[in-house]
């Protein structure tokens, strides 16, 4: 097995060092999301800035000296692109678009089907391909297994009789599984191979090859294969620039595209008083509406130069990235719990034997030792905690997700009806996954990236001692494969029995009230920093505890800094002095600093009005000045930080709860208050095994960052209450609090662990929640007292 799982070096030691010297910013970050966007090198950006600062570029439509320079430079980039894909301007034209999606849309809205033309597409396709169906009268989805079994060397030519145009779209590489689909399909389809499959008789078949995922780590040789259209995404190849794609059109196929809309620069003549326009003859001039993104296009030159400078060929990149993916795939395949059960279920059409059929993507779901699924949100939380950047969900590829997870259309609808939508973290419904986990590699990826990921998987998800063995099922799959591809469904448990979970639905019968005592009041003046424990009582306002989350730290981009990206924040200890009306900040080993709590343009310190965002909301805030900004940058070792204070809660820009606009919010994420039940924390600690939470009860409570710490008689009763009465103050329940990796950070040290995240996930079948949100709509102020009685009212009372 050691030989089976062995990593095979592809780069030379010199190449490895050259690459490392251009990616210093990664340090302790492990980026495994190259299928979504690869990384730009630091020298690449320096060279782009140098190019722009040394030249005068202007709108190429102007035809003056600077615009002529731009036009010529852009044309040179077009030639570079064609050369990169081993073709020329006699064979193909480059049409720049805003993205690969825009390139697909351009073909979708321009393609002429004629009579009885069909839009056919592989089940495993990006969502952007599905959108092309809106422009076709007849559409047909070809399932993955059908395509792999039917479109092979045994197909017969079927030149149809109907003079119609039909279009087939498939990805050169699946962005879900990394499967490289046979490019021989292009020739087969153009010769009519789909006619008998679709029971049609179309004479003219065109093929669009979606190479957005493929081209970043694979050689696309257009001198040997001849798709009619190819879609490209440049940031997936070079990391920079974003917002730039291309459609490569085979010149002999351009007549199948009919221009409808036209913009500036695409016409030879357009009349205003008459609806008359004459399109330009050169293909890219006809389809590039408006001014092209010429500065972004010119930046591509340094992308090509970077590969050359690092002595990297696409073929070498393909072998390197595949070697890393194969290494991870085989280790995951062999990883088992102590009882011999597999740790993951892998979603692939290959067994990673060769880079000919498989790209640098590993896709999977995690299984517990009893066979239950681990939700992908839990995996994402642990990855974030370890500085590992990966992706979860369906990756904008619902067809592949259905195929590998064995979901019917009815299953997908049930998931939607149960509240799951694309891109959310609703990962398990009825115990079954709604998506999966994906890691992917780029040319700058290293074995260290792979090893850090594998270490995280073993440390966080394996019941010890781990068992490592090659499963017999692997050899069975190899024997069943056809031309290197697995044709059987690989989704594991059937999802035909998916049901909505109603475990938290309360009985309609009135339930007895729960009684408890408020033991602690904690506020967090600065968002994501340490808490300030109240000694006796504290005022409450229309947005929550007075001064709770009124300040936030932003970086030089204006983005809020949290413990998710800087764990040192928990070591900043703020305190509020109501008498002096000051905010005092301390940090181990540094002098304290104090600022007034009242900040505005009329205050004595420098203040300017700023804007930022919290949970998608625009925030109006006052900058608290240079002194505290310098202090924060020093203690957190992060230059360019600023401290902002939210404008008054009475300001017209104040935030409201997403669930109910009657509740005003400070800079808190979801609700005004968070309540934690001490008895629930004790219950949680009892479920920890092998001293996984050796800290004090107080430290565990701090992990959940509550405002109110209440001692009820029973554990988890807070989840069932609809409102809470603190003496005479009534708070409405806002539901349970969904948790992320931040609860794995010890708030007293900044160190991380895998608990209590795993305990919660196991206890609640993947639903990682703990504590309840509270809100109050009254606009007048009261005090809340430590030691006051708290009554939790359940339904019907």
Structure description:
It is a single chain. This protein is of the alpha+beta class and 797 residues long. The protein has 4 domains: 52-306, Aspartate Aminotransferase, domain 2; 316-480, Alpha-Beta Complex (Aspartate Aminotransferase, domain 1), CATH 3.90.1150.10; 522-663, no CATH class; 668-794, no CATH class. The chain has 21 helices and 40 strands. It has a 7-stranded mixed sheet with strand order 2-8-7-6-5-3-4, with helices on both faces. Strands 21-35-34-38-37-36-40 form a 7-stranded mixed barrel. α5 links the parallel β3 (118-122) and β4. The longest helix has 21 residues, at 314-334. The termini are far apart. The model is unreliable at 490-494 and 496-508 (pLDDT under 50).
Per DSSP, the total helix count is 21
Compute the average pLDDT.
90
Architecture per CATH nomenclature, i.e. the level-2 architecture of the largest domain: 3-Layer(aba) Sandwich
Radius of gyration: 30 Å
C-alpha geometry: globular
Order of strands across the main sheet: 2-8-7-6-5-3-4
Question: Largest sheet, described in full?
Answer: 7 strands, mixed
Question: How many separate domains?
Answer: 4
Number of strands: 40
**Beta-strand percent range:** 15-25%
Helix content: 25-40%
Predict the CATH topology of the largest domain.
Aspartate Aminotransferase, domain 2
CATH class of the largest domain: Alpha Beta
Short description:
With 797 residues, this protein is of the alpha+beta class.
List the defining traits of the structure above.
40 strands, 797 residues, seven-stranded mixed β-sheet, Aspartate Aminotransferase, domain 2, alpha+beta, Aspartate Aminotransferase, domain 1, seven-stranded mixed beta barrel
């Amino acid at each position: 097995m050691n030989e089976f799982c062995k990593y095979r070096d592809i780069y030379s030691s010199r190449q490895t060092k050259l690459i490392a010297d251009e990616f210093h910013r990664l340090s302790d970050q492990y980026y495994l999301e190259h299928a979504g966007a690869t990384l730009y090198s630091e020298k690449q950006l320096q060279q782009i800035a140098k190019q722009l600062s040394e030249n005068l570029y202007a709108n190429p439509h102007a035809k003056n000296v600077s615009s002529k320079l731009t036009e010529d430079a852009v044309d040179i980039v077009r030639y570079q692109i064609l050369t990169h894909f081993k073709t020329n301007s006699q064979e193909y034209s480059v049409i720049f678009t805003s993205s690969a999606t825009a390139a697909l849309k351009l073909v979708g809205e321009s393609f002429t089907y004629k009579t009885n033309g069909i839009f056919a597409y592989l089940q495993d396709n990006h969502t952007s391909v599905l959108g092309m169906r809106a422009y076709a009268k007849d559409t047909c989805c070809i399932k993955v297994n059908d395509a792999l079994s039917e479109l092979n060397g045994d197909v017969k030519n079927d030149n149809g009789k109907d003079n119609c145009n039909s279009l087939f779209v498939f990805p050169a590489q699946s962005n879900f599984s990394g499967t490289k689909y046979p490019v021989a399909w292009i020739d087969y389809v153009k010769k009519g191979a789909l006619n008998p499959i679709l029971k049609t008789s179309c004479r003219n078949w065109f093929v669009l090859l979606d190479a957005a995922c493929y081209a970043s780590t694979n050689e696309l040789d257009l001198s040997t294969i001849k798709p009619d259209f190819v879609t490209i995404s440049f940031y997936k190849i070079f990391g920079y620039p974003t917002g730039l794609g291309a459609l490569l059109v085979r010149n002999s196929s351009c007549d199948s595209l009919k221009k409808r809309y036209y913009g500036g620069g695409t016409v030879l003549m357009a009349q205003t008083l008459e609806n008359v326009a004459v399109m330009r003859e050169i293909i890219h001039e006809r389809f590039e509406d408006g001014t092209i993104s010429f500065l972004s296009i010119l930046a591509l030159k340094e992308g090509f130069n970077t590969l050359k400078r690092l002595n990297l060929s696409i073929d070498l990149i393909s072998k390197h990235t595949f070697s890393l993916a194969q290494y991870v795939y085989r280790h995951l395949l062999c990883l088992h719990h102590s009882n011999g059960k597999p740790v993951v279920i892998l979603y692939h059409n290959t067994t990673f034997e060769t880079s000919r059929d498989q790209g640098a993507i590993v896709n999977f779901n995690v299984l517990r030792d009893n066979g239950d699924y681990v939700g992908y949100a839990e995996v994402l939380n642990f990855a974030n905690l370890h500085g590992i950047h990966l992706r979860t969900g369906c990756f904008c590829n619902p067809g592949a997700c259905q195929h590998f997870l064995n979901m019917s259309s009815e299953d997908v609808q049930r998931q939607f009806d149960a509240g799951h939508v694309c891109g959310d973290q609703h990962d398990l419904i009825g115990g079954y996954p709604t998506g999966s986990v994906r890691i992917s590699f780029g040319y700058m990826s290293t074995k260290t990236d792979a090893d850090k990921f594998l270490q995280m998987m073993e440390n966080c998800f394996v019941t010890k001692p781990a068992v490592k063995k090659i499963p017999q099922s692997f050899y069975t799959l190899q024997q069943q494969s056809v031309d290197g591809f697995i044709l059987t469904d690989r989704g594991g448990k059937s999802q035909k029995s998916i049901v909505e979970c109603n475990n938290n639905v309360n009985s309609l019968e009135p339930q007895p009230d729960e009684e408890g005592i408020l033991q602690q009041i904690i506020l967090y003046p600065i968002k994501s920093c340490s808490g300030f424990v109240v000694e006796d009582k504290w005022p409450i306002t229309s947005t929550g505890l007075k001064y709770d989350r009124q300040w936030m730290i932003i970086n030089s981009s204006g983005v809020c800094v949290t413990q998710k990206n800087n764990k040192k924040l928990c070591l900043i200890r703020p305190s509020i002095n109501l008498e002096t009306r000051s905010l005092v900040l301390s940090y181990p080993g540094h002098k304290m600093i104090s600022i007034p709590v009242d900040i505005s343009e009329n205050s004595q310190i420098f203040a300017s009005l700023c804007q930022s965002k919290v949970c998608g909301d625009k925030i109006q805030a006052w900058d608290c000045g240079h002194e505290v900004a310098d202090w924060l940058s020093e203690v957190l070792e992060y230059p360019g930080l600023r401290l902002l204070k939210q404008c008054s809660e009475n300001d017209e820009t104040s935030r409201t709860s997403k669930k109910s606009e009657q509740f005003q919010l400070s800079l808190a994420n979801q609700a005004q208050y968070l309540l934690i039940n001490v008895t629930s924390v004790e219950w949680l600690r009892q479920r920890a095994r092998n001293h996984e939470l050796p800290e004090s009860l107080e430290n565990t409570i701090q992990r959940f960052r509550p405002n109110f710490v209440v001692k009820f008689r029973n554990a988890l009763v807070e989840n069932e209450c609809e409102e809470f009465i603190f003496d005479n103050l009534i708070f409405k329940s806002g539901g349970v609090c969904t948790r992320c990796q931040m609860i794995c950070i010890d708030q007293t040290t900044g160190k991380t662990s895998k608990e209590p995240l795993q305990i919660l996930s196991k206890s609640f079948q993947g639903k990682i929640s703990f504590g309840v949100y509270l809100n109050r709509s009254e606009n007048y102020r009261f005090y809340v007292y430590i030691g006051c009685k708290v009554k939790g009212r359940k339904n019907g009372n």
